[in-house]
Specification:
By secondary structure, this protein is of the alpha+beta class. It folds into two domains: 3-85, no CATH class; 92-124, no CATH class. Helices cover 21% and strands 31% of the residues. It is built from four helices and eight strands; from the N terminus they run αβαβββββββαα. Strands 1-4-5-6-7 form a five-stranded antiparallel β-sheet. It has a three-stranded antiparallel β-sheet with strand order 3-2-8, with no helix packed on it. The longest helix has 11 residues, at 109-119.
């Protein structure tokens, strides 16, 4: 079987990526450790055979991500990626409070309550 016949685009790895990440990752941006090129994960080249998936850089062919699915385990090796950026697709509210530290809910409970109300206001 020819290598080209086994190659898919990175979108085909969406299911395996979903086993590892809590959100859809084919739209995430990955920077290759080999050549520094930047590509969406969906544009990487996927080679899948048996129990695993290898995602390679479309420019230099470095193995950017390896995912092995075994019964009860998922193994991810992303050593070929120097940076992986993904937007919060479901983020509906964000506010940086002007006061409060690590335990802001205890330090300023009124601010915490106001932030909770603001965050979930859209549900009304």
């Amino acid at each position: 079987m020819q290598t080209e016949e086994m190659r898919l685009d990175g979108n085909a790895a969406g299911g395996a990526l979903r086993e590892v990440f809590a959100q859809e990752m084919t739209g995430a941006i990955a920077t290759c450790a080999g050549c520094g090129s930047v590509s969406p994960v969906g544009a990487l080249l996927e080679y899948g055979q048996g129990m695993g998936v290898i995602l390679r850089c479309p420019k230099c062919d470095v193995a950017m991500m390896r995912i092995a699915l075994t019964p009860g385990w998922v193994r991810l090796d992303a050593s070929g990626i120097t940076l992986l950026l993904s937007a919060f697709a479901t983020l509906s509210y964000f506010n940086k409070a002007d006061r409060g530290g690590h335990f802001a809910a205890w330090e300023h409970p009124e601010l915490f309550a106001a932030e909770l109300c603001a965050a979930f206001r859209w549900l009304r």
